[in-house]
Amino acid sequence: MVQAFGFFQPTQVFVEEGAAGRLADLCKLYGSKPLVVYSADLEAFANPVIADLEVAGLSPVRFAQKDPEPTCDFIDAATAELKAEAPDCVVGIGGGSAVDLAKAFAISLTQEAGIWMYANLSNRPPLPLKAPVLPVIAVPTTSGTGSEVTPYAVLTKTDTKQKGTVQEPAIFPKVALVDPVFTAGMPPALTASTGMDAFAHALEATINVSKVAPMAELFGIQAMKLILEWLPVAYEDGKNLEARQQMAFAASLAGMAISHRGTTTAHAIAEPLGALTHIPHGLGVAISTVPVLRHSLPAASASLARLWRDVMGGEALATEEAEAMAFVDALEALMTRVGLNKTVRDILGDEKCEGLRDLLVQNILEFKFRPLKQHPVEFDKAALETITADIIG
Ligand SMILES: [Fe+2]
């Protein structure tokens, strides 16, 4: 039987050196006053971009993002001030959190409730949007989240130590300006963790069992191939622009993959892990992926064996289980090569791991259970305790 599927990807993407030069003309499509949200540590990139907008006759409103995890309270307070500026579009320059913050402002500046109410939680639906949101233009400086092409924005709520994701087609960026030069300044550790986040998006969207989504698999498999080939190059030689461009392309492809069929278990673990420990998203996902896959065997052998053949070009082995194991072993070897074969304990030390596993499992089961159902193997509480014990170390 022919299986039905849908496909929606409204973001125009430019992957090119000098892509940010297009920004002024794009902003003029929406008015004269873009809100420019940028990571405060990226002024060297943001300043010339903002200066170009001024030269072009625009009146940009600057917003330097100092906290990599802006809280919902912070977003709500900033919104009250920014409403007086009445911007007509939002530009996000930075890693995933800056682009996500731009998307959050696109909503908060046009809606009435606090931003958290628009997060789509496993245990609570979001409020519907009551008015059109501001258009978003994304200029990513990492090759990881793929936020430049997704309808997602991750939010942090401090009082309940929660992360939640807005999942709203209205915040698909109108345009993504992907310039490999903007990612060339990333240090090796950030290159590795963001690159493995992109790999996890591609992997999880490909093996996700929730619905038929051939485009997710098409994008996901190609993204994984590119990352396997180019992440070690970008990690070892950050100035290699071909490697940077291939990684930027791969991260956008992986972002399109999760736009069509979302993430699964490693993300269901890494988001609460980030909320509880402040381990950055990419690093949390990177160190969770191999333990999740090891515990997915042998039940998920068919899914992972396919990746051994289609992504890694591996030779046929005696059983699917052996092929799946070979895929996970090869992925672990890549993690080692890029300095990511580590545990939470290696990163945080013993003290901060005290009691962490139980809190983490509780947080996953309370707030983040939906992605668990999308994994080829659905883990129960006992299994999650074992997996998270491995991740924590
Ligand atoms: Fe991610």
What brief labels describe this structure?
393 residues; six-stranded parallel beta sheet; alpha/beta; globular; two-stranded antiparallel sheet; binds fe (ii) ion; 50% helix; Rossmann fold; Dehydroquinate synthase-like, alpha domain
How would you portray this structure in words?
- With 393 residues, this protein is of the alpha/beta class.
- The chain has 2 domains: 12-183, Rossmann fold (3-Layer(aba) Sandwich); 188-392, Dehydroquinate synthase-like - alpha domain (Dehydroquinate synthase-like, alpha domain, Up-down Bundle).
- It is 50% helix and 11% strand.
- The protein contains 15 helices and 8 strands.
- The chain has helices at residues 23-28, 43-55, 72-82, 96-108, 180-183, 188-207, 214-236, 241-260, 265-277, 281-295, 301-310, 320-337, 344-348, 356-367, 381-392; strands at residues 12-15, 34-39, 61-65, 89-94, 136-140, 152-157, 162-167, 175-178.
- The strands form 2 sheets. A 6-stranded parallel sheet has the order 1-8-5-4-2-3, with helices on both faces. A two-stranded antiparallel ribbon has the order 6-7.
- Helix 2 (43-55) links the parallel strand 2 and strand 3 (61-65).
- The radius of gyration is 20 Å and the shape is globular.
- The structure holds fe (ii) ion.
